[in-house]
Each structure stands twice: as C-alpha cells, then as structure tokens.
Write a structure and sequence with these properties.
Blueprint: E1 4-16, E2 19-26, E3 37-43, H1 44-47, E4 55-59, H2 61-65, E5 73-77, E6 92-94, E7 102-104, H3 115-120, E8 128-131, H4 138-148, E9 154-159, H5 170-177, E10 183-187, E11 195-197, H6 200-209, E12 215-220, H7 237-247, E13 251-255, E14 258-259, E15 269-270, H8 272-281, E16 287-292, H9 295-305, E17 313-318, H10 322-327, E18 334-335, E19 338-339, H11 344-359
Parallel strand pairs: 3-5, 8-12, 8-13, 9-10, 9-12, 10-11, 13-16, 16-17
Antiparallel strand pairs: 1-2, 1-4, 2-3, 4-5, 6-7, 14-15, 18-19
C-alpha cells in the first residue's frame, strides 16, 4: 500500500533530464520511522517542477523499505501548482487503472507515424540483441560493443521489471547525452523512452526499423525484484526475451550475471538468475557468453555455465582490454553500491557480451 506523507520543499538538489531532486521537510508523524527530512524525486512530465517552498504530497513507501536502488521519496503532486494539461496523441495507458496512470503514444498504435512500419515488419533482420539481467550492466554492454565497433548504433529496449520511468536511470541519460546510445524503447508498463511500445516484440521491431539499431540491449530498468526464491525474480523476463529475439529472426546473445563480491551465495559466480532464465525459461537457443576471467574464479564461472550448453551455444570471450573501455565511460559503473574495483567480474561479463555481439555485425 502507499505510504502518504506531506512535506515542504526546502532545497533543490542536483538533478537530471526529466527529474527534479528535492530536499523535503516532512510533516512529522510519530507513528512512522521516516526521517524528518528526505530526498524526493519529482518526474517533471508527470507532476511538474517543484520550487523551494512548495507544499508537496509524497509517497514514501520505497524510502521506508530501504531498497538497494531507492533512497528517495516520490513526489505525487504539487497540489497548489498543478502542471498544465499536456495535449498530444496516444492512447497507451501506463500504470493502468492506478491513481497515477499516464497516457502516452505507442509507436505501434494506430495513429502513430510508425504504425505502418511496425504493422508490416516481420523481423529484425538478424540483428544481434544482448539480453542482460540487471540494469547496471547496460553501460558495460555498450562499452563492449563500441570497443569493437565504435560506430555501431545501440538501442536499449527497457523491460518493465524494474523502475518504470526511463528517466529514473542516470546511466541511460548519461549514455544518451554522450552519444553512446542511440535511443531507448520502453515496453509494457515502462515509459519515458524515445519510443513506447506494447510488448518486447514490438519494442525490438521499433529499435531496428524506427531507430535504426545495429545492436539492441534488452534489460530491466533499475531496481529489479528478487524474492530469494528460484522463480520469484523479475529477471525471468530475460529468458522470455531470448524467445522473442529468436521469433523475430534476431541473434540472441545472453549475458551472464556474474558476481565475485555479492554476499548472497545465490549470486556468487554465475547467478541463479541466469541459470534459471536461460536454462529453464528460454526455449529458443542463444549464444551464451562466458567471460574468460583469471584464476579459480574464472574456472568456477566456466563450470557453472557448463549446463547451459545443453540448450545453448557457449561462447568463451576474452576480457582483455575491456577494463580500460569501462574506465573510459563517461560514468562510473556501479551495481548495488559496488564499483568496478569491488566487483570487476560483474562488469567484465556484461562487456564481454557486448564485445561478442559486435563481432556478429556484418562488416
């Protein structure tokens, strides 16, 4: 359920495109553990732009739970200064039948300038598509692709298993602003990309035929859901994405979620997320990239990935030189608060998948 709070904007903090970050003084409630002051995100397309002194209505549910990618309350409304109505085409409703539902135009809906293109498209022309579980691996995949093919057009197809607003992702914004990513397609209940589509299938078609992608990267938004049960994690969608790519005559490239610093045993070495998504959910064959990592840890990753070879093609990809590519990114790779120095294998695995996808491009 929603945890409602009232507050007053005390300070505007450093923000990014589509998002205003505020320091908000909360109206204190003795029955809640919420701090008296918190950081709050305002999605400007939804609620307008809060100013210092504004009274705001907040949702503090995620803040109070303290998730790994949280730390923010969300501005639900600025009641005394509502934004103007935004006129425009479109009838796709995101967050359907909730108090915060928003209407956008889908690239695949009737009335869209891209409707005919997507209505008649039958496939994605053998395009390599990297499928990866955590959103934090997106910059690493991009770095791996560009290490081999610096001119490649890369498009992110963002699943709705994590954060729904694309503008929540600073990774996405930075990659776009620096010209390393050609665009983003948000699918399902996710929204805020350059294009919106109803399904991962139409999202892939839009990435290829509307945004001109050479390579697509399918991943969730930040903050995926993991219940600690074999099937209860939002990353099962990675296996379904493999099937979608294959159905559209693309080349599915499966990135392994690898970790050497995660304290949870189920994520050490090759995560159970990858073993379940690719080993049980994915029914179509994919090229599973096994990064060549040094020492006993590298052998452990190879051994854990081995069973996936019953269904898929295992491809060992060297990681030599990829650390330098990661360090040259305009942002600092980070996953669950750990940077490149703390969990090198996590980022090298994703970058290796990008490197391999680039080799599948026609010269």
């Amino acid at each position: 359920m929603i945890r409602w709070r009232r507050g007053q904007v005390r300070l505007l903090l450093p923000s990014w495109t589509g998002v205003h970050v505020c320091a908000v003084d909360l109206v204190t409630d003795p029955d809640t553990a919420s701090p008296s002051t918190c950081r709050a995100l305002a999605y400007t397309d939804l609620v307008g732009e809060p100013h210092v002194g504004d009274e705001v209505l907040l949702n503090t549910g995620a803040l109070d739970l303290g998730p790994g990618t949280g730390g923010y309350a969300l501005v639900v409304a600025v009641p005394d200064r509502l934004p103007a109505d935004r006129e425009g085409p479109g009838h796709l409703i995101k967050a359907r039948h909730t108090p915060l539902q928003a209407t956008v135009q889908g690239a695949d809906e009737q009335g869209s300038p891209h409707h005919e293109t997507l209505r008649t498209a039958r496939g994605i022309d053998g395009m390599p598509v990297v499928i990866t579980d955590p959103h934090s691996s997106l910059p690493a995949v991009v770095a791996g692709v560009l290490a081999e093919r610096p001119r490649a057009r890369i498009v992110n197809v963002m699943l709705d298993g994590g954060a729904l607003p694309a503008m929540f992702s600073q990774n996405l914004g930075t990659l776009r602003e620096d010209g390393l990513l050609a665009g983003c397609v948000t699918i399902g209940q996710a929204f805020g990309g350059d294009l919106e589509t109803a399904t991962v299938h139409s999202g892939l078609l839009a990435a290829r035929h509307v945004l001109g992608a050479d390579v697509a990267v399918v991943c969730q938004g930040p903050g995926d859901l993991d219940t600690g049960t074999p099937w209860g994690f939002s990353g099962v969608a990675c296996g379904e994405a493999v099937n979608a790519v294959a159905n559209l005559d693309g080349l599915p490239v499966a990135a392994l979620r690898v970790g050497e610093a995660d304290p949870r045993p189920r994520h050490r070495g090759v995560s159970h997320h990858s073993l379940t998504a690719y080993g049980k959910v994915a029914l179509a064959p994919a090229d599973v990239v096994v990064p060549v990592l040094p020492g006993e840890f590298g052998e452990r990753v190879r051994d854990q990935a081995w069973p996936l070879g019953d269904r898929h093609t295992l491809v060992e990809v060297p990681t030599t030189g990829l650390e330098g590519e990661l360090l040259s990114l305009p942002l600092k790779p980070s996953a669950m608060g750990r940077d490149l120095g703390q969990d090198r294998a996590a980022f090298l695995s994703a970058a290796a998948a990008g490197r391999y996808a680039a080799t599948l491009l026609v010269p």
